[in-house]
Amino acid sequence: MSEIYQRYEKPVLNIDQQLELLINQGLIVKNPKRILHYLCFIGYHRLSGYFRTFQLQNISEYIFKKGTAFDSIISLYIFDRKLRLLVMDAVERIEVAAANQRR
Q1: What is the pLDDT of residues 81-102, one digit of tens each?
Q2: Residue 15 in contact with residue 36, Cβ under 8 Å?
Q3: Which residues of 17-41 are buried (b: 16+ CB within 10 A; e: fewer)?
Q4: Which residues neighbour 76 within 8 Å (Cβ) at sequence distance 6 or greater?
Q5: Residues 60-69: what's their mean pLDDT?
C-alpha cells in the first residue's frame, strides 16, 4: 500500500519573522516584546485561530481589519481559556456526581 504525502510549501518562520508577518498583515503593534512573549509561550499556530476573527481574506493572503491591535486578540484568547477551564471544572463535577449516584 503506497502512501501519498502532500508537500508543505510554506517556509518555517522563526518568532521574529512571525511578528513581522503579523505587522505586514496590518496588525497594530504597540509592544513588540509582549507579542514575542505570547508567540513564544502560546505559539503562532494556536493563536492563529483567534487571528481569523479579526482578519479579511485578500486574494491568497489574510490581512487584519483596520484598527486591529494584538490586545484584542489576546483578550479573546484569555477569555476562551478561562471559559474552557470553567467548563472542564463543571464537567468534572458532573462526572463525580454521576459516579456517586451509581453507587
Answers
A1: 999 999 999 999 999 998 888 7
A2: yes
A3: ebbeebeebbbeeeeeeebeebbee
A4: 50, 53
A5: 92
